[in-house]
UniProtKB/TrEMBL annotation, chain A:
Natural source organism: Bradyrhizobium xenonodulans
Pfam families registered for this protein in UniProt: BPD_transp_1
Region annotation (Disordered) ranges: 20-53
Protein's recorded name: sn-glycerol-3-phosphate transport system permease protein UgpA
Keyword Transmembrane on entry: yes
Subcellular localization, as worded in the UniProt entry: Cell inner membrane; Cell membrane
TrEMBL record, chain B:
Keyword annotations: Periplasm, Signal, Transport
Subunit structure: The complex is composed of two ATP-binding proteins (UgpC), two transmembrane proteins (UgpA and UgpE) and a solute-binding protein (UgpB).
Source organism of the structure: Bradyrhizobium xenonodulans
Main localization of the protein described in the UniProt heading: periplasm
Family that this chain belongs to: Belongs to the bacterial solute-binding protein 1 family.
Location within or outside the cell: Periplasm
The organism's place on the tree of life at top rank: Bacteria
Gene3D superfamilies in UniProt: Periplasmic binding protein-like II
Name under which the protein is recorded: sn-glycerol-3-phosphate-binding periplasmic protein UgpB
CDD domains xref list: PBP2_UgpB
Known function: Part of the ABC transporter complex UgpBAEC involved in sn-glycerol-3-phosphate (G3P) import. Binds G3P.
Signal peptide start-end: 1-23
Transmembrane segments: none
Length: 345, 443
């Protein structure tokens, strides 16, 4: 602890990390920062306050103007659609909107009573948790290994970052093909090992496949943040630990990992949001939600019910519920995990 | 400098093109045809545009059927719908009761065209008409047929696939056990259409009450009490024994057949174009099999799409629409479309023309769909399916069948659940359209 405090340049880095972490919920972060600096008995408020006051001096004019574009985007792409979804969720209507009935909360009642929807919730839970663990775990290993690679480091980084440039639908088709039990080369390898791999028939295989595909697509995102986070871990500290006889794993677990706390926390939140909302294209390309609804995650069900089944009321009700889940999930994470994160790094 | 000149030239060129075109009335037709079929559709539109001076039809590919449907819904809500749109058969009730369409027969007659609607092939006419009047223009009508690999059957000592499921099963097991091919058949992507719905029609099994929905929106599914249950059990058995394979995502079932890996394939007659182009095997096709205790088998039912006319356009534009629909209904157009794509000709006259010209001598498999569709006298079980939210009930059913394939449910349990879920969905449609519904409706 004392060792860490004595390194001066880290102070300058810290706000950078905090700024990133605050991306998801800017209110919670300063509170936590205040808390942690109190705990570690450090004084930094001057620098914080200076940052905040430096820019906007006279009245609300300029800040409002600068916020306006973002507010407009939010208005048109978030608030108005959300309001429409809320309204639609209490209606029974034909797709063309020529016949509309107000049905109170029937859509919600039907949903919560359907086993299909409960299955979708369970699938979403397992999918997002597994995807999170896998993505973060692999990204951590890859990021930590970056430092240990001497030759071709930039090639190494580029290769890891490449999947980010591939459209999710294309990535999905690639994975579906590679693991296709009839023709996929990797499926043949699995069959050769005596594993009866068949994501078209076996729900577990299908869930594993979409989890792999979704994680693969997102590892690079986590990787970027973790590499930057690791850069903030002072070399001298690592060297000191090495001199004291700590091996690479020990150094990683006892020094790098705690110092990455805020980054990992932020990434966890982002991974959940990714799993909840952005994996739709991958599911569509890899399994179409099947077999037997085994990969029918909530966001995909919203799409199918709304755009294939044209059941707009139910689809709207689902998107309202999904948004609430995501919100609650994020709030819970901030409430319970945020305290454990040490922002004083 | 050179670039500037080129730009100005291009601008004038564009103006020159736009100029005379404005004299023509332009109407839009959104469709879902892609690949070979899309090319053929564009040729058809081109033929129409060249055939006269007054109207221009602009064909716009809007993706698959779901995407076209969503596109037209969004456009209608924004009060800018296209004049015509191609919608798949499953969307019939949604379109019919949407309040957003103009019935085709009304429009065409109002504009003074004399299309002989009574000449349309029976299953086609009865599917697309309501109370005896055509609601949409039948365009690409298909039906599933049975494709097979001639060489595989010959090697196994069979002339051709058997007529009944029982005999066919023996053949497929023989082919598999002799190691002639890896799998006897491949599960079609739209198996619910060919192997459950059409299966029910051909084998005279009721699918829903009230004449499969023709007699009202109060219809309920009943296929959990018919041979459909044993059909699902049969498919499951074939899968377990490796006689049937699933192509799955990332790969098309058709490729498993055309590459010679699987010996047979149940698929739409509309895949003629693709199979002729891609198959490296010695293929042929025949009728779908029927159950051995059902004789004679009934007709199969149609799938595919029709052209719907949207509400809210000027009289002038509807003239263009009527002219185009009249063109589509002409025997010449139908014969050409039939030959170019493999879809069935919509009218008896077109079929007769194709026969007279000896078309089926060179293309015997092209006739199977027509013969199968017009076989026997259609009854309540074979006339077709008229269920609201039919896509949604189908997806629920597909999910339950997949649960059987995955070994999670027994066929009876799964079909019971599918019927239960389906009926809830039907009740929702009935509730939404209360009062708008047909009383007894007989073609």
């Amino acid at each position: 602890m004392t060792l860490r405090l004595s390194i001066p340049w880290r102070e300058a880095r810290a706000p950078v990390l905090q700024g990133r972490c605050g991306g998801g919920g800017s209110k919670a972060v300063p509170a936590a920062v205040a808390g942690s600096s109190r705990r570690s008995g450090r004084t930094r408020p001057r620098e914080e306050a200076g940052l905040k006051r430096a820019n906007f001096g006279d009245g609300p004019g300029l800040p409002t103007l600068l916020l306006l574009p973002q507010l407009l985007i939010l208005l048109f792409f978030f608030f108005i659609p959300s309001l429409r979804a809320l309204m639609q969720s209490v209606l029974l209507s034909d797709p063309f909107g020529t016949n509309v009935q107000f049905v109170w909360f029937d859509n919600f009642k039907t949903l919560l009573a359907s086993s299909d929807y409960r299955q979708s919730i369970a699938v979403t839970f397992w999918f997002t948790v597994a995807q999170n663990v896998l993505t973060l775990g692999s990204a951590l290993v890859l990021a930590f290994a970056t430092d240990r690679i001497v030759r071709g480091r930039s090639a190494y980084r580029t290769i890891i970052l490449l999947p980010y440039a591939i459209a999710p639908a294309i990535a999905g088709i690639l994975w579906a093909f590679l693991f296709n039990p009839a023709v996929g080369p990797l499926a043949q390898v699995l069959h050769g090992l005596g594993i009866a791999w068949d994501p078209n028939l076996n729900p577990t295989d299908a869930l594993i496949l979409v989890t792999l595909a979704a994680s693969w697509k997102h590892i690079c995102y986590d990787y970027i943040f973790l590499v930057v986070g690791l850069l903030a871990v002072p070399v001298s500290l690592m060297e000191a630990a090495a001199v004291d006889g700590a091996g690479p794993i020990r150094r990683f677990v006892s020094i790098a990992l705690p110092m990455l706390g805020p980054t990992i926390f932020f990434l966890t939140v982002m991974n959940f949001i990714y799993g909840f909302f952005e994996t739709f294209a991958i599911i569509d390309a890899v399994t179409k939600g099947g077999p037997a609804g085994a990969t029918n995650i909530l966001v995909y069900k919203v799409f199918v019910d709304g755009f294939v089944n044209l059941d707009l009321g139910s689809s709207a009700a689902q998107s309202v519920l999904l948004m609430s889940f995501a919100l609650i999930c994020t709030l819970l994470q901030f409430r319970y995990f945020d305290r454990k994160v040490n922002y004083g790094v | 400098m050179g670039r500037k000149v080129a730009f100005i030239a291009a601008l004038f060129g564009a103006l020159a093109l736009v100029g005379p075109a404005q004299a023509r009335v332009e109407v839009q037709w959104w469709h879902a045809m892609s690949g070979v079929l899309g090319d053929r559709l564009n040729e058809l539109v081109e033929k129409f545009n060249k055939s006269q001076e007054k109207y221009t039809v602009v064909a716009v590919a809007k993706g698959n059927y779901d995407e076209v449907t969503n596109g037209v819904i969004a456009a209608y809500r924004a009060k800018r719908p296209p004049e015509m749109v191609q919608i798949a058969e499953r969307g019939y009730m949604t379109m019919l009761l949407s309040g957003a369409i103009v019935p085709v027969q009304d429009l065409v007659e109002q504009k003074g065209y004399k299309i002989d609607f009574s000449d349309f092939i029976k299953p086609v006419a009865s599917f697309w008409s309501y109370k005896g009047r055509m609601s949409a223009m039948p365009f690409n009508s298909s039906t599933p047929i049975f494709w097979y690999n001639k060489d595989h059957f010959q090697k196994a000592g069979f002339d051709k696939p058997a007529d009944t499921w029982q005999e066919l099963e023996k053949q497929l097991y023989t082919i598999k056990s002799k190691g002639i091919s890896e799998c006897g058949t491949v599960l079609p992507g739209d198996f619910y259409w060919s192997l459950l719905e059409n299966y029910s029609a051909i084998n005279n099994q009721p699918y829903g009450t009230l004449a499969n929905g023709f007699d009202g929106l109060g219809s309920e599914f009943v296929y959990n009490k018919t041979k459909v249950v044993s059909q699902v059990a049969r498919l499951k058995k074939w899968l377990d024994d490796g006689v049937m394979q699933i192509a799955g995502q990332g790969f098309s079932p058709e490729q498993l057949f055309t590459s010679g890996r699987c010996s047979t394939f149940v698929n739409s007659t509309a895949s003629h174009g693709n199979i002729e182009r891609n198959a490296t095997i010695n293929w042929s096709a025949t009728f779908l099999p029927h159950e051995s205790d059902i004789n004679p088998p009934l007709n199969s039912t149609i799938g595919g799409g029709a052209i719907w006319v949207m509400k809210g356009h000027t009289s002038e534009r509807y003239e263009a629409v009527a002219a185009f629909l009249d063109f589509v209904a002409q025997p010449e157009t139908q014969v050409w479309w039939h030959g170019a794509t493999g879809y069935v000709p919509a009218t008896n006259r077109a079929y007769a023309v194709a026969r007279e010209r000896g078309y089926y001598k060179d293309h015997p498999t092209r006739e199977i769909a027509v013969l199968q569709l017009s076989r026997g006298t259609p009854n309540e079980n074979s006339r077709g399916f008229r269920f609201g939210n039919f896509v949604q009930t189908m997806l629920a059913q597909r999910q339950e069948v997949e649960a059987v394939f995955a070994g999670q449910k027994q066929p009876q349990q799964a079909m019971d659940d599918a019927v239960k879920r389906g009926n809830e969905i039907l009740r929702q449609f009935e509730k939404l359209n209360a009062g708008k519904t047909p009383e007894t409706e007989r073609p």
